[in-house]
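Hi,

I'm pasting everything inline rather than attaching a file, because the server keeps stripping attachments. The sequence lines come first, and each chain or strand is labelled.
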Amino acid sequence: GESVGLHLPTLSVQEGDNSIINCAYSNSASDYFIWYKQESGKGPQFIIDIRSNMDKRQGQRVTVLLNKTVKHLSLQIAATQPGDSAVYFCAEIAGGTSYGKLTFGQGTILTVHP
Amino acid sequence: ETGVTQSPTHLIKTRGQQVTLRCSSQSGHNTVSWYQQALGQGPQFIFQYYREEENGRGNFPPRFSGLQFPNYSSELNVNALELDDSALYLCASSLGGVMAKNIQYFGAGTRLSVL
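And the predicted assembly:
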C-alpha cells in the first residue's frame, strides 16, 4: 500500500526555533509563487505569496525569499510553534498564460516538537 | 475558514460509476479551479472555470468535466470511474480575469474512494 509522506522531505524542529523550508522550481517562465500549509484532512491554506518582481516579502512570522537566478524559493517561519506542524507546499504560476494554473511542488513535512 | 465549501466530504463509488462533486466559491470570486491530490503528493490541476467558461485544462482525460453556474458555484463530474481516481478533490476560488494570478483559496476537499 501507499504510505503518506514516505517520499516527502521532512524537517523536524524544536518549538521556538526558526524553520526554513526550501523549494526549487523548474519553469523559468513562472512569475507568481504561493506557499500553502496543509494539515491532515484539510485543504491547502494560503500562507504568503510573492511575484517575480520582488525577491523578499514578509508576513506575520513568515518570510518568503525568491532567487530567480537559481530558481529557488524559501519559506522562513520565525519562532515555530507546534501548530505550525503540517505539510508545506510551494506553488507557481507560469507567465504568459491567460489563466491561473497552480503547479505544486512535492511538499515538505514540518514537525515541531514541544 | 476560506469561505469555500465542498460537498460531499467523503464518497465511495465502484469502478465504472459516475460521480459529481460540488463547490461553492468565496463571495465575490468569479473563478473556480479544481485539483486532484493523490495520497502523499501535491495537488494536480484539472481545470479552471471563469465566468461559466472553461479557462484552462490540465492533463486529465475528457471523462473529467465540469460546470460553473451563474452564481459561480461549480461541479466536477467524473465518468467511468477508475481505481486510480481515488484521491482528494480540491476546489479553489479566486478573482480571475485580467488579474488571473491571484491567491487561490481552497476548500477542505472531497475524499473519493473508488472500489
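The radius of gyration of chain A is 14 Å.

If the labels don't parse on your end, tell me and I'll reformat.
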